[in-house]
Structures are given as C-alpha cells and as structure tokens.
Amino acid sequence: MEAGNNYRSGFIALIGRPNVGKSTLMNQMVGSKVAIMSDKPQTTRNRIRAIYTDDAGQAIFIDTPGIHKPRSALGHNMVRVALDTLSEVDLILFVIDVTQELGGGDQFILEQLRNVDTPVFLILNKIDQVHPTQLLPVIDQYRTLYSFAEIVPVSALNGNNVETLLQVIMQYLPEGPQFYPTDQVTDHPERFIIGELIREKTLQLTSDEVPHSIAVVVDQIEPGEREDVVVVHATIYVERPSQKAIVIGKQGKMLQEIGTRARQDIERLLGSKLFLHLWVRVKKDWKNREDILRDFGYFEEE
Fold first, then answer.
1. Does the predicted model carry a pTM greater than 0.70?
2. What is the full DSSP assignment across 61-89?
3. Phi-psi category of 42—alpha, beta or left, where left has phi over 0 and alpha has psi -120 to 50?
4. Are residues 137 and 94 part of one domain?
5. Domains: count for the chain
6. CATH number at residue 44
7. Is residue 110 domain-shared with residue 154, that is, in the same domain?
C-alpha cells in the first residue's frame, strides 16, 4: 500500500480498569462499531483491532480486556492478553473514568506501565459527567504517580475532544506504511464481529447473574435464497440451566428480543438482510476449562 511522504502509522493500546469506556472511545475514534459496549464489567475478552485512516496516517487501535483481579482461567487469560499488548505497540492510552476515585486497579496498571518505554497518554474519560474544575485535582494526582507524554480529557460517549486526541496521537506515531486499505475499520473477520454483537445484546438485556457466563459461537454463515439475504446460525453458551432459562425468557421472549436487536446491528455491518437463528446451550463451568476456552477463541496462540 502506497503512502505519501511523512506518512505515519502505528499501533496503539487502550488499557484501563473494566468499564472505563475503552470500547466506546475506540468506536468513536474510528467512526464505526467494532467493539461491543455494555455497562457490565469485563465486556471485552479479546484484543480487538480498529483502524483509523486519514491523509496523514493510519492508527491501529487495540482495545484490551479491562485489567481486574482474575477469578477464573478466562479472567487470567484476559489480564495476560492486556499486559502482553503493552510491549507490542507504539503508544499506550491509559483510560480512566474521572467519576471514579483512583483505586487499586489503577495503581496496578501504573506499576505495569513503569516496565515499558512506550509513550503513555492519560485519557480522562466521561468529562461530560463532572464540572471542569473537578478535573484539575485528578490530573495533579495522576501526574505525581507517572510521567505521561500527554494528558487529554474526552467524552467518549459524546465525542467531545476525540478529534483533538486523534491529531495528537498522529504526532506520536512513527513514519511508516499504510497497513490496511483506507475503508477497512477492523482486521477481525465478520464471524467474530457478529458473535460479539450477539453477546453485546445478551449482556445488555439479561440480569447480573448471567453476563460473565455468556459466550457466543457463530456456527454457520450461509447465503439465503435471495442474493440480498444472509443466514446466520449462532449458539449462546451459559454455565447453568437457570441461566439458560433467563436468556430464553418466558415463552422465548428474551431470546427473541436479543435476536431482533442483534439482527439490526448485523444488517448494518453486512449491508444485507439477515435471518438470525439463535440457540442457547449449557456448557458447565466453561470459563475454567482451557479446552473450551480455546474452542470459543478466548486463548490466542502463543
């Protein structure tokens, strides 16, 4: 891929505690929904690459799982994936929620950042929820703990200051080639994104008992009888029969609503009409079984 003189490109990791808005920020920067969003912690389980391209350069964002104290094999893998990413990128965005106090999770991340030479930006997210005067004490507190290359306040949800953040990011990227075509916004296959969109709707609609126990596997994608129709078969896995009952709902209404909302997003992704067939199956204690985690795609190859 040809690029002009002084063209810049590089990889940027987003890191932070669970639920600080990393996925929302990444989607806002690339202008497309490539990472799922939910108010449930630990939504992101895989490294999701999103791609922003303009005339000056190309930024490839890696949204890492939120760093937390792991309680399962899945949790340990999520944290390992997040920390491994720090050594593989040109720039790190440490995202915090300015409505939350600095906590043990933030301190742990800062300790890990001291082991890397990569420039780190402090991203103050959710500034729309606080008065501007409340930002200065937060900035001063974090400045005493780490020497950040830049400190940028944003509202990922509303898009406030995101354009400025992109401009600053480009200044820090090295000169390099354009890795992906201009119109490409992610390097994940459609099958992965479809599964994530189904999981997002399940997370949003089910109770707190279910989310951490949900995995989605897209079993088959096939053409429909008409050229403009795609047929998707997918399975939602849970750990207990009681969770299966919640996801299906009375007379199947919950599963129907999950399917309706997911179908709308997937149709926008594919640009085609969609028939979505969903099943719910129990796979006991799957979060602690490495063979199943690999089958579900949560363990990356070493």
1. no
2. EEEPPPP----SHHHHHHHHHHHHHGGG-
3. left
4. yes
5. 2
6. 3.40.50.300
7. yes
Cα 217 to Cα 228: distance, rounded to the nearest angstrom? 24
- What is the pLDDT at residue 221? 79
The answer to whether position 135 is within a domain reads yes
Q: Are 276 and 234 in contact (CB under 8 A)?
A: yes
CA dist list (Å): 14 to 4, 50, 66, 120, 242: 27, 11, 9, 10, 35
Instruction: Name the token pair of 10.
Output: 């590089």
Indicate whether 40 and 96 sit together in one domain.
Answer: yes
Contact 232, 275 (CB under 8 A): yes
**With a cut of 70, which residues of the chain have pLDDT below it?**
1-5, 32-48, 64-85, 187-189, 207-212, 269, 292-302
**Exposed / middle / buried, residue 267 (Cβ in 10 Å: 0-12, 13-18, 19+):** middle
Q: Are 36 and 203 in contact (CB under 8 A)?
A: yes
Task: Give the pLDDT of residue 204.
Answer: 85
Those residues with Cβ within 8 angstroms of residue 160's Cβ, 6 or more apart along the chain or in another chain: 127, 128, 154
* Rounded CA separation 166/103 (Å): 27
Indicate if 247 and 99 belong to the same structural domain: no
Are residues 201 and 272 located together in one domain of the fold?
Answer: yes
CATH code for position 281: 3.30.300.20
CA distances for 64 relative to 19, 44, 80, 134, angstroms = 12, 7, 10, 28
Which domain range does residue 221 map to? Answer: 190-296
Q: What tokens were used for 193?
A: 């994104």
CA distances from 194 to 45, 128, 235 (A): 15, 31, 12
For the CA atoms of 238, 243, 248, 251, the dihedral, rounded to the nearest 10 degrees, stands at 160
Q: Give the sign of the dihedral formed by CA 17, CA 156, CA 169, CA 43.
A: positive
One domain, residues 133 and 218: no
Q: Phi and psi at residue 127, in whole multiples of 5°? A: -70, -15
